[in-house]
Amino acid sequence: MGKVTLYLDSRTERRMKAAAKAAGTSPSQWAATLIWEKTATVWPSTIARLAGAWGNDFPTLEEIRSEAKSEASREHL
Prior knowledge:
- The protein has helices at about 10-25, 25-40, 45-50, 60-75.
- With about 80 residues, the protein is mainly α.
- It is elongated.
- The relative contact order is 0.06.
């Protein structure tokens, strides 16, 4: 396991400690989790499960484009 030293101003350090405490973890683990999340190369499973969740009420590409054409003329007034 690697070791990293961070230099934080006192306000940022207080905010980090408060966030870690609220999450029920150490500041080190909180920072490690944040770095892991921010550097992820795949979508979290909670987001991936949303794919298709909106059902059939999402407009088709043709519907979107037809609405854009009718709205475009109004924009030029």
